[in-house]
Amino acid sequence: MEVVSSSELDEFVDRVRERSDIREVVGNYVPLTFKAGRYWGCCPFHSEKTASFTVTPDKGLFYCFGCHVGGNVFNFLSKIENITYFEAIKLQAERLGIPIPVRNKSPEEMKVEQNKKTLLKINELARDFYHSRLTKGPQGESCRKYLVSRGITENVIKNFKLGFAPNSDELTKILIRRGFSYEQLEAAGLVQKSSYDDGFYEKMKGRMIIPINDIFGRVVAFGGRTLKNDADVAKYLNTKETAVFVKGKMLFGLDRANKKISAQDYAIVVEGYMDAISLASFGIENVVASLGTAFSEAQAKLLTRYTRRIIFCYDSDEAGQRATVRALPIVQQAGAEAFVIKVPEGKDPDEFIRRKGKPAFAKLIRNATPMIDYRIDFVLDHSKHDSYDEKVYTLHEILPLVAKIEDATLKNAYARKIATALFLDETSVKAEWEKFSTGSKQNENFSAGRFKIQEKSKLEQSIEVILRTSWGEVEIMDYVLSLVPREFFPEKYQEIIGYIERCYKEDRVPDDLDAAKELDEKSYAELSRILSPAASRFGVEEFVQQDSKAFTDSFEVIRQAWSKIHYEKLLTEFYATINDKNKSFDGELPKIAQLADKMFSLTKIED
Description:
The protein is an alpha+beta fold. The protein has a five-stranded antiparallel sheet with strand order 1-2-3-4-5, sandwiched between helices. It has a five-stranded mixed sheet with strand order 13-12-14-15-16, sandwiched between helices. α14 (349-356) packs across α15 (358-366), α16 (371-381) packs antiparallel against α17 and α18 crosses α19. The longest helix is centred in the C-terminal third of the chain and has 30 residues, at 550-579. The protein is globular. Residues 441-456, 534-548 and 602-607 have low confidence and may be disordered.
């Protein structure tokens, strides 16, 4: 077999893309209606009643104005089928009957791949063994009784493939007879080398076994819960991290929950396996567990593939509260909304739903606390505010949590809440808030996304006109950047601008497939929205018609906005020069004159 070159792979991808009709592909999943030159339907990635999902066949792009997901046919298949981008290309190739090119792997690649296959096979056999020992024969009787006491039905046991590890080395003997070595079983985390002799022992003996699957449903690890009430015995054990299992990059139950999460447009994150299993057994299936580790950026990114609303339901004890507080900013940074379920009476989700039932838990979901409120309450509960100094200190702990709120009604509501909680005058709280916000702005370094102008929507529409024009004529971006610095542009456009710059420098034409490879998911979705003819449908008001005058008008708006900021910067420098008593005024006159000329030329743009 010959090694496949990158050009052959590119040709293969181009062939699949050219043969793919995005309207036909999407239409297999979403009913589409033709209207005003494009196709519309209800988005399959979030719940909606009014169609905001659009497909533009001539550009080969889709975009949803509700959840802001967009891309090409491969992005769509990747998201709808929960597979990687390149798995989506292969899937579409198979559907079209296009042969997939293959290449020889290096010895190192083959070794890594074989090792992963071995670990997955060992885990699969171990899962079936544990499940059999739980469901058949006398060995699993104590575990079956325990599960019945927890309200876990036979159907849940079957769905989650729960198991039991006997107090013997039976599994090891079976796997050794199947041709696996002790070293391979140790690599899988099922056995551990004895510190007393050269032998190995099974780690999970006498425990209820919970298989941990990856997003494709493959068993990658196991959790084991003790059946003993012994304070000296660890309640839960996980098999160790391996080539197929990294705790911080996985979520227990996501392989089963992802479709429910997408359909209901929110995910519930719990701490433990039994919390997730219990909720699922009561019919609440959009639940995942964070595998006993601190909630990570990778886990947040996993969840945001399916929803932008994440509800935490950790234990109500101190450790659970602190874990929740640490997790909330991570979700916010991932671009999702975060909420918190406060389980009453210090119960965990498992205990609460078993005692109170599904309707009571559904009510907790409906009353989930928004992230800001939860963090404010946490600060109030964990600080003293008896004296005036303590009140002021606590206020300054809270202000960073609310500083980014811009809606006036919301600001008033939070100012009132904070004032009431601290027994402070509401006017004083608002004054401190304003002082804090002003100080924060003054301390910020100048960067693209932080400028303030009254007509922000007009500016953003103008930038998008420039980007659409540059997509067809990349030299335009070079011209724009020669007059307006790149750092002026908001952060959400930076990667797109960088891609167009590279195309200009490398003398290549922008292409949606290349863009999908080079841009991150968020930037590519933004690009898809900008290039969509429907981009202005949900906007404030289309700033310019797409004609020969569009570029000139849009560039003028951008240059004026930049001029305002640059003028202020020069003005500050000008006054600093005049007020510097350590410098000779006469020696600075030429510089002052030069700055004045610059300022005059910049202000003329506004006339």
